[in-house]
Amino acid sequence: MSLSQDFFQLPNGSKIPAIAYGMGTKWEKRGEPGLNDNLIKNLQFAIDVGFRHFDGAEVYNTNKEIGLLLNKSSLSRDQLFITDKFFSGGPDLGERSDYKDPYSALKGDLRDLQLDYVDLYLLHSPHIKKETHGYSLIEAWQCLERLKDEGLAKNIGVSNFSVDDLRQISENNPTHRPAVNQIEYSASVQDQPPGIFEYCKQQGILIEGYGVLSPLSETTTKHNLNSLLTKLSKKYGKTEAQILLRWTIQQGVLPVVTSNDAADIKSFLEIFDFQLTMEDLDAISGKGSDRGLKGMLHNVVSKVKS
Length: 306
What we know:
Oligomer: single chain
Largest sheet: 8 strands, parallel, barrel
Low-confidence stretches: 295-306
Order of helices and strands: EEEHEHEHEHHEHEHEHHEHHH
Number of strands: 10
Number of domains: 1
Mean pLDDT: 88
CATH superfamily: NADP-dependent oxidoreductase domain
CATH class: Alpha Beta
């Protein structure tokens, strides 16, 4: 039996499931041939327990697994929310998409996904320049606008964009503005790049956060979260991971999570039956210390992963 799942609302009024199962980090394939049977198994379990939002990307090389599973699923297409991302590359990285531009990239990804459209398509990073890609960041965004206009992407957005990056788009009279900015976000990284949280809030851009559970794997003496999370876990009868996920959602941020552990996958959805008090929300926010550009974000820049 599926667990209930809340939704966020995008600017066009469409609903987006409030938590996503991510296909990057743990599952990303680095040139390995064939399908990942373990990934397919975990995806099926995620669907069985109630996940409906799946976050993929060209660079993860897992779209064929997603497509195979979705093709076999008894769920109708409108019950699922599928995100894909264009592999923009990084600032010092020659490697980037095999396709000439985002428009052709999504058309190729749709073949692997065995879908007619994706629900959300993102530029995976802002590092797009005329001299390296043959087109500018604005022209890349115009490719996404074309995909939206043609119905191949129901919503469009960005990932790892700063305030200045977003302003580049907004200052060039876009037909469609970004609906989403997927960035690193956690109790210890609450506003990276600087100013992005408030700017997205003001502009009506939904923040999706990856790395939301990273405080659990950090040396938390620096961040002073251990004792607080232990205390709140006992208070609410929830795991520390569930406390952090609930904190994320109550910040208005959509968490992207992943795991190959069945118990973890199921527990990720068991966060919609309680709320943290304002006092506890503020306590978590206060204990977290934003320490600037993290190692995870360096990886995003160098290999565009989430």
